[in-house]
Amino acid sequence: xxxxxxxxxxxxxxxxxxxxxxxxxxxxxxxxxxxxxxxxxxxxxxxxxxxxxxxxxxxxxxxxxxxxxxxxxxxxxxxxxxxxxxxxxxxxxxxxxxxxxxxxxxxxxxxxxxxxxxxxxxxxxxxxxxxxxxxxxxxxxxxxxxxxxxxxxxxxxxxxxxxxxxxxxxxxxxxxxxxxxxxxxxxxxxxxxxxxxxxxxxxxxxxxxxxxxxxxxxxxxxxxxxxxxxxxxxxxxxxxxxxxxxxxxxxxxxxxxxxxxxxxxxxxxxxxxxxxxxxxxxxxxxxxxxxxxxxxxxxxxxxxxxxxxxxxxxxxxxxxxxxxxxxxxxxxxxxxx
Length: 337
Fold this sequence. Notes:
The chain is α/β, with parallel strands linked by helices. Helices cover 47% and strands 16% of the residues. The protein has 11 helices and 9 strands. Strands 7-5-6-4-1-2-3-8-9 form a 9-stranded mixed sheet, with helices on both faces. The longest helix is centred in the C-terminal third of the chain and has 34 residues, at 266-299.
């Protein structure tokens, strides 16, 4: 590693209500990177925590200038936190990693080595998830397989634990104006040279996971709508199935009429109405999800609002490109601007 000239590595750490363990997590990360041969900045993005997470970050920043932080005005979600961290990062390479230490920081030197060898996106791929429950493993497996199949991107055992070259970071933060984002998918979609490194998911260091079933469903919907129009094709398929079913029912009724058999029709009518009604409601729901995402995009609201920062210049953090919509806004507490 010493053969390479020193460059700057940025480490982005999204955090939400992580006050009990954030200091320990940062210490572990700094220790793991002590001999990586690169200068370092570590950016903690406080995603609207209701505890003292940002106070802990501010205290650490005062003792170590490499530690920086920014705090949202409210909880905007992990995807927004990752975007803000990438926008604030100034490194030649940027690593995104969870604050609960389930992503092992000890793997980062190997990711840096792969980057030096030419990979512009280095994915840490989950080899085992023994610390997750059976339901969590099943849910993740179904979601990744479904989106990989429909969206044409490889998400099998993927995670948010990645290293991105500066070119990739700029492409994601400045070249893609969309507001509804799915970081894992975008990192694969941009198409730059990839490398993968397997890891075993560790036990959570402190506290409880913040992902609720509703949040996971919302993320899954965003991912599917953002990367594939296949569900809309399902609507067309349902329409053809309904048409075929209708022809079959009509043919059965006509045959019975020509043969002089009494046609009660009650059961057939009820079944037909239930099937057609279900198909219609499913189709409307799918179309509605796409319309909702379109509505969110055309409102053009920023993906996040930053209330305060420590160790980060607000103007540099925003990286405003006047030819493109801003992804985030820094709100001054005193002026509200």
